[in-house]
Amino acid sequence: MITKSLLAKELKKPGLSHKDATIYLDTLIETITESLSKGKSIQLRGLGTFYVSKQAKRKTSINGQMIIPEHGRVFFRPSENLRNAVWNVNA
């Protein structure tokens, strides 16, 4: 698993300091989160698209009758390059 800290170390290679790389990642995550919370999709070419889909209100019978209100769910659609890159990866 790659953590945010390890990703920041990888960003240091092009010449960013660890502090600048961490600020960059925090800003990127914050921007993606804000955009998705407003219902906007985010397309990162070569990686894929993050988007929000509304889930309808529904009832469930787990532990009695429970109503789950309408809510948004985040989805990710990988780019063709990413799909092809991981097609034969053994998990």
Question: What features would you highlight for this structure?
Answer:
two-stranded antiparallel ribbon, three-stranded antiparallel β-sheet, 2 domains, extended, alpha+beta, HU Protein, Chain A, 91 residues
3D structure, described in words:
The chain is an alpha+beta fold. The protein folds into 2 domains: 1-39, no CATH class; 41-91, HU Protein, Chain A. Helix content is 40%, strand content 27%. The protein is built from 3 helices and 5 strands, in the order ααβββββα. The model has no long low-confidence stretch (mean pLDDT 86).
Please summarize what this structure is.
This protein has 91 residues and is of the alpha+beta class.
Describe how the helices and strands are arranged.
Elements (H helix, E strand, L loop, with lengths): L3 H9 L5 H20 L4 E3 L3 E8 L2 E3 L5 E3 L2 E8 L1 H7 L5
Antiparallel strand pairs: 1-2, 2-5, 3-4
Helix pairs in contact: 1-2
At the first level of CATH, the class of the largest domain is: Few Secondary Structures
Shape: extended
The number of distinct structural domains comes to 2
Radius of gyration: 18 Å
Order of helices and strands: HHEEEEEH
Task: Work out the strand percent.
Answer: 25-35%
Helix content range of the residues, please?
Answer: 25-40%
Main sheet overview: 3 strands, antiparallel
Which structural category do the helix and sheet elements fall into? alpha+beta
Indicate the mean pLDDT: 86
Order of strands across the widest beta sheet?
Answer: 1-2-5
Total strands: the figure is 5
Helix segment tally: 3
Name given to the CATH architecture of the largest domain: Irregular
The CATH superfamily of the largest domain is IHF-like DNA-binding proteins
Q: How many angstroms separate the termini?
A: 12 Å
Unreliable sequence segments: none
CATH topology group of the largest domain: HU Protein, Chain A
